[in-house]
Design brief:
Blueprint: H1 4-9, E1 19-20, H2 31-43, H3 53-73, E2 80-83, H4 86-96, E3 106-110, H5 119-122, E4 130-134, H6 145-148, E5 156-162, H7 174-183, E6 187-191, H8 203-206, E7 210-214, E8 224-228, H9 230-235, H10 259-263, H11 266-274, H12 278-300, E9 306-309, E10 322-327, H13 332-339, E11 344-345, E12 347-349, H14 354-359, E13 367-371, H15 378-394
Parallel strand pairs: 1-11, 3-4, 3-5, 5-6, 6-7
Antiparallel strand pairs: 2-8, 7-8, 9-10, 10-13, 12-13
Helix pairs in contact: 3-11, 12-15, 13-15
Bound molecules: pyridoxal-5'-phosphate.
Pyridoxal-5'-phosphate (PLP) binds at residues 85-87, 114, 116, 162, 166, 191, 193-194, 214, 224.
């Protein structure tokens, strides 16, 4: 079981009493991460790679941060590319794949993804690549194998899909879907941004070719992480200086990584170690999140006029605690603005998953999204429920 007092004490922002339920937009940051960023800047802010003592120490700290990032996803340091965001890394990946994707080749994207894992692949159409769209299953509101199968063929080179929808919170069966794509000879690139804050990422167990996540949603700083199988990274084109063409992952990190933020990444892993290690920590996180989900869903699913989009069950194997809902006759923005004065952060919109919001039948205001992580408490869920209840009833 998570000790919530111990957990919450690690996040200085929580001491303000503000209730954060926009965690899918960005989690709060560990105090230990912030301390490392500051410490790097005030003691080690020199160029890496020189022989003098301070530079040697800086190099070590940044390398340790990369190793920690790799450990967090079960990869080795040479398989991890860091950048400013997942969006940037996926655009860079698409650019670096120009040499292996030719006119007539096919890529599959989904209607459930954040645009970060759609736009870079859609743009390949300008080069003659055929872009097909895998639609969310209308009944299950998930990405199902039966939706993918008819899109696969000998020309399919890549399938880009999401591990968890950032609107619906539903967890997709990445290993099975990946196997299906592999059987057709295609690679997969999986968006793990909405999964990684909630469950352990193990890229080898998932079997993926590429996997991306945003560490500012995993209790860390604003850094994006792209995992790629080493042999794939070696084949990718060079985005850096000509003479760095053989340097993996440096050839994919033009301008290099952000030193102070990278140096702080070990603090995320150390935090998970303090909770019993990655396996145990994420198992306890999943159990606590299920309790949070059950409490919020108990309210949302019985409140007249409220539609919860996606899975209405709290089961930890099926969803993370990210909830999208709409209220009959009420603009999502009006609900959110009525909650704002209560010192609770929720948000409305399509969250850049526009085709999905459209498929759900949402108007331009999108959905109301409330997203929890493990540092949220049941008492906070109760505060949110009271605030929502008032906001919804006021409209009637
Ligand atoms: C599911 C998902 N994918 C991708 C992104 C983009 O991440 P980044 O802000 O690191 O570019 C987000 C951001 O909210 C997201 O929720």
């Amino acid at each position: 079981m998570l000790d919530l007092d111990v957990v919450r004490a690690r996040f200085p922002a929580l001491a303000s009493g503000f209730v954060f339920f926009d965690n899918a937009g960005g989690s709060q940051t560990l105090g230990s991460v912030a301390d490392r960023v500051r410490d790097y800047l005030v003691t080690n802010n020199v160029q890496l790679g020189a022989s003098y003592a301070v530079s040697r120490a800086s190099t070590e700290r940044v390398e340790a941060g990369v190793a920690a990032a790799a450990a967090l996803v079960g990869a080795s340091p040479g398989e991890v590319v860091l950048g400013s965001s997942s969006t940037q890394l996926l655009h860079n990946l698409a650019l670096a794949m120009h040499g292996e994707l030719r006119a007539g080749d096919e890529v599959v994207i989904t209607s459930a993804d954040h645009e970060a894992n759609r736009g870079p692949w859609r743009r390949l159409a300008e080069r003659g690549v055929v872009v097909k769209e895998w639609a969310l299953d209308r009944d299950s509101l998930r990405l199902e194998a039966r939706g993918l199968e008819p899109l696969l063929g000998p020309k399919t080179k890549l399938v880009a899909f999401t591990h968890v929808s950032n609107l619906l919170g539903s967890i997709h069966d990445v290993p099975a879907l990946t196997r299906l794509a592999h059987e057709a000879g295609a690679k997969v690139v999986v968006d793990g941004v909405a999964f990684a804050p909630h469950r352990r990422v193990d890229v080898r167990a998932l079997g993926v070719d590429y996997y991306v996540l945003s560490l500012y949603k995993v209790y860390g700083p604003h850094v994006g992480l792209l995992y790629g199988k080493r042999e794939h990274l070696e084949r990718l084109g060079n985005l850096n200086h000509d003479f760095l063409a053989e340097e993996v992952p440096y050839k994919l990190q033009p301008g290099n990584v952000n030193f102070e933020l990278t140096a702080s990444l070990g603090a995320i892993v150390e935090y998970m170690d303090s909770l019993g290690g990655l396996e145990r920590a994420f198992a306890d996180i999943a159990a606590h999140e299920e309790a949070l989900s059950a409490r919020l869903l108990a309210y949302l699913t019985q409140k007249p006029g409220v539609t919860v989009h996606g899975d209405p069950t709290p089961a930890r194997g099926r969803r993370v605690p990210t909830f999208a809902f709409t209220v009959a006759g009420r603009e999502p923005e009006a609900i959110v603005r009525a909650v704002d004065p209560k010192g609770i952060g929720v948000r409305h919109g399509d969250f850049y998953a526009r085709p999905l919001a459209r498929a759900l039948g949402c108007g331009p205001g999108g959905v109301v999204r409330a997203s929890a992580v493990h540092y949220n408490t049941l008492a906070e869920v109760d505060r949110l429920v009271d605030a929502l209840d008032e906001a919804i009833d006021r409209a009637r």
